[in-house]
Specification:
By secondary structure, this protein is an alpha/beta fold. The protein has a single domain, classed as TIM Barrel, CATH 3.20.20. Helices cover 42% and strands 14% of the residues. The chain has an 8-stranded mixed β-sheet with strand order 3-2-1-8-7-6-5-4. Strand 6, helix 5 and strand 7 form a beta-alpha-beta unit. Helix 9 packs antiparallel against helix 11 (235-248). The protein is globular and about 45 Å long.
C-alpha cells in the first residue's frame, strides 16, 4: 500500500475541546505528536477555539461544511446530499476535498468522478462495498472508525479516527503499526475492542443518558491522558474501564509512556 499524507491515526480536536479547556490541550497535543500521531481533525470553530499554535509535526484536517451551498456539482458528487469537507493534510496548507458519508449508503465510484482533487474519504464504517468502489482510485486515502480499522485496512483503508485516539493516542499509533506488522493479530484485537465497547462502554452510556455520538468524548476520560473539566464517569468507574482495557487490549499499551 503506497503512502499518503493522511495515513495513520487522527485525533478529533472537537472531542478534546468538548471534555477539557482549550488551555489544557497544548501539552497533550505536543505529547501526541511525539508519540507519532498523524494529525488532528476539527471543525473551523474548534480550531478558532484553540488559542495556541499547533505542533509543527501534526497535520490538520479542517472540517468545513460546504454541502449546503446549492452548487449542482456538489450534489452530483455526493449523490445523496452528504457533506463535503475541506482537507489540509499538512503544514503546507494543501487544499483537497473530503467526502463525508455519515448516514449515507454505499458510495458508487461514479459519485466522485466530478472531483478530480478528491484525496480522502471519511467513512462512518468499514463498508466492504464502499471500500471496493474506492479501491480503484490509487491516490485516495480512506478513513474508517478506529474500532474497524483492521478490517478496513484489509480492504484498503489507510487512516482511522475516533475510539482509539480518544482512548489514548499511543494506542492509536500502536494499532496503526500492528495492521502492517501482524494483520491477524490486529483483527483479533479489533474483535476484542468491539467487545469492550459493547459490554463495558455501551451500558455506561445508557446509564448516563448518553448516545453513541458521545462515546468518544467519554472514552477520553477512561485513561485520563487529557484533563477533563466535567467528568461524567465516577473515579471507580473510570479505573474499572482502564483495568479492563489494559487486560483485554494489552498489545496497545505495552511500553506506553
Amino acid at each position: 500500500m503506497s503512502e499518503h499524507p493522511c495515513d495513520g491515526p487522527w485525533l478529533s480536536l472537537d472531542d478534546m475541546l468538548a471534555t477539557c479547556a482549550p488551555k489544557d490541550v497544548g501539552p497533550f497535543l505536543e505529547a501526541a505528536a511525539d508519540w507519532g500521531l498523524t494529525g488532528i481533525m476539527a471543525c473551523t470553530d474548534g480550531l478558532l477555539a484553540y488559542p495556541m499554535a499547533l505542533p509543527e509535526s501534526l497535520g490538520v484536517l479542517e472540517i468545513q461544511d460546504v454541502g449546503s451551498s446549492g452548487d449542482p456539482t456538489q450534489s452530483q458528487a455526493t449523490g445523496s446530499g452528504a457533506d463535503l469537507v475541506a482537507l489540509r493534510p499538512g503544514r503546507d496548507q494543501e487544499r483537497a476535498a473530503v467526502l463525508d458519508l455519515r448516514g449515507t449508503g454505499p458510495l458508487h465510484s461514479t459519485a466522485i468522478v466530478p472531483w478530480p482533487d478528491l484525496t480522502a474519504v471519511l467513512l462512518p464504517r468499514a463498508d466492504e462495498d464502499t471500500l471496493d468502489a474506492l479501491s480503484r482510485f490509487e491516490d485516495l486515502a480512506v478513513f474508517v472508525p478506529g474500532d474497524e480499522f483492521a478490517s478496513g485496512y484489509r480492504l484498503g483503508a489507510a487512516s482511522h479516527f475516533g475510539v482509539l485516539t480518544a482512548l489514548h493516542p499511543w494506542a492509536a499509533v500502536q494499532a496503526s503499526e500492528l495492521v502492517s506488522e501482524d494483520l491477524p493479530l490486529a483483527l483479533d484485537l479489533e474483535r476484542r475492542l468491539q467487545r469492550f465497547l459493547e459490554t463495558d462502554v455501551a451500558p455506561r452510556l445508557r446509564r448516563l443518558g448518553l448516545g453513541l455520538e458521545d462515546r468518544d468524548t467519554l472514552l477520553v476520560e477512561v485513561l485520563g491522558w487529557c484533563p477533563v473539566e466535567r467528568p461524567r464517569l465516577a473515579p471507580g468507574d473510570a479505573e474499572s474501564l482502564a483495568d479492563s482495557l489494559r487486560m483485554d487490549l494489552a498489545e496497545l499499551f505495552r511500553d506506553a509512556p
